[in-house]
Amino acid sequence: MPLAARSHARTCSTRCRVALHRAAKKKNALPTELTTRDRWVRRSATKVPLTVAGMAASSTDPRTWSSYKDAAASTVGAGLGFVLSDVDDIVCLDLDHCLNPLTGRLAPWAAAILRDAGATYVEVSPSGDGLHIWGRADVRHGRRIRRPDGTAVEIYGTGRYIAMTGRRHGDTPSILADVSGAISKLTSSR
């Protein structure tokens, strides 16, 4: 970096700055299948859904939902949430207590579910020790599958909202894949 550069500069050139910006954008990229739907809410620190204006939102009332752009621009609450609806086949598998937040190590049972889900968007949950696996499948009734070790896997497709972080897990893609096989495997083993 040249001596004339400002002491607070993060990059050595415009080219490096642009590359850093693109890398950060790519790392945190939410799938277009989610950001183009007007099913976004804000959420409180205790995961209560809120409208962009700060009123109570509902996972079953589209009048309380917003576009991604409006929800992301709002400063209400502690973060974003996405509403699952029966108008499409977007689903979320919520894996609790499967990720060591200090080491990033994934529990073997969760790694098996990730393998079964394939190349689809996965993000770290707000707690930092769980994962949300996003994909496509026909799930009309949510289900909670309690594992023998006390952890749980929840499968949701409609009438719920999921607290979003945008913290992509590993190098998972920013697309939604068909996760029907993973869901079938989870539900048939119970």
Task: Identify the overall geometry.
Answer: globular
Which structural class should the secondary elements be placed in?
A: alpha+beta
Determine the fraction of residues in helical runs and give it as a percent range. Answer: 10-25%
| Largest pleated sheet | 6 strands, mixed
Please, how many helices?
5
Notes on the protein architecture:
It is a single chain. The longest helix has 14 residues, at 14-27. The strands form 2 sheets. Strands 4, 5, 6, 7, 8 and 10 form a 6-stranded mixed beta sheet that branches. Helix content is 23%, strand content 23%. Helix 4 packs across helix 5 (180-188). The mean pLDDT is 89. By secondary structure, the chain is α+β, with helices and mostly antiparallel strands.
Please tag this protein with its features.
single chain; 190 residues; alpha+beta; 6-stranded mixed sheet; 4-stranded antiparallel sheet; 5 helices
What's the quick description here?
The chain has helices at residues 14-27, 32-35, 68-73, 108-117, 180-188, and strands at residues 40-43, 49-50, 79-84, 90-95, 122-124, 131-136, 143-146, 152-156, 160-164, 177-178. It has 190 residues and is α+β, with helices and mostly antiparallel strands.
